[in-house]
Amino acid sequence: MKAKIDVDLCSGDGICADLCPEVFEMDGDIAKVIAEVVPEDAEESCRDAADSCPEGCIEIEE
């Protein structure tokens, strides 16, 4: 599984980094993906982060 962020849509609220710090972190006002491949034990929290993103800027590739 991989995660991607559309930085043009990101509002920087940080929900993804709060829910799944293994995959996302804040870089100033924009979230970024820090794991090339989502660790297996973080897949559920990564999906939760994508579902919780108010802008819908996180894309999950299975």
Can you lay out the helices and strands and say which pair or pack?
Layout: E1 2-5, H1 15-19, E2 24-27, E3 30-33, H2 43-52, E4 58-61
Antiparallel strand pairs: 1-4, 2-3
Describe the structure.
The protein is 24% helix and 26% strand. By secondary structure, it is of the alpha+beta class. The chain has a two-stranded antiparallel ribbon with strand order 1-4. The longest helix is centred in the C-terminal third of the chain and has 10 residues, at 43-52. The N and C termini lie close together (4 Å). The model has no long low-confidence stretch (mean pLDDT 97).
Report low-confidence residues grouped into runs of 5 or more. Answer: none
Proportion of helical residues: 10-25%
CATH topology call: Alpha-Beta Plaits
Per CATH, the architecture is: 2-Layer Sandwich
DSSP strand count: 4
**CATH domain class name:** Alpha Beta
SSE run: EHEEHE
The tally of domains stands at 1
Alpha-carbon Rg, integer: 10 Å
Largest beta-sheet characterization: 2 strands, antiparallel
SS-based class: alpha+beta
The largest beta-sheet arranges its strands as 1-4
Q: What is the straight-line distance between the termini?
A: 4 Å
> Residue-averaged pLDDT, rounded?
97
* Shape estimate: globular
Strand content: 25-35%
Number of helices: 2
